[in-house]
Amino acid sequence: MTETGATMTAYVHGEPVEIPATIAGIRETLAEDRVEEFDREVAHTPALQLAQVLIRWALPQEAKDEQEELFAALERGDFSRFGDAPGTEAA
């Protein structure tokens, strides 16, 4: 995936997707006009929040879109996509 090699697995629509697992790997995948913003955010992120920030930057847009869809469903009161939610059958 990247020249740095280290990856981790994220899931998009239930399918595994390899994403970069290093700062350098994430930088490699970014559009040139986003690198400065990424560097600035990483440089000013408290250590305990760094993993969350890196994963957010590493996730593909499809994963972010899926998260937005899930949050929108929750806001509508639709819990049918959430396992053992009331009114759903357990998987």
Can you walk through the features of this model?
With 91 residues, the chain is an alpha+beta fold. The protein has helices at 23-29, 32-43, 50-58, 61-75; strands at residues 7-12, 15-20. The longest helix has 15 residues, at 61-75. The model has no long low-confidence stretch (mean pLDDT 87).
Sheet-strand content, in percent, reads: 5-15%
Number of separate helices: 4
Output the radius of gyration. Answer: 16 Å
Shape: globular
How many E-type strands? 2
Average pLDDT, to the nearest integer? Answer: 87
Specify the biggest β-sheet: 2 strands, antiparallel
- SS class: alpha+beta
- Regions with little confidence, pLDDT below 50 for 5+ residues: none
What's the SSE pattern? Answer: EEHHHH
For the record, give the distance between the C-alpha atoms at the N and C termini, rounded to a whole number: 33 Å
- Major β-sheet strand ordering: 1-2
Percent helix range: 40-55%
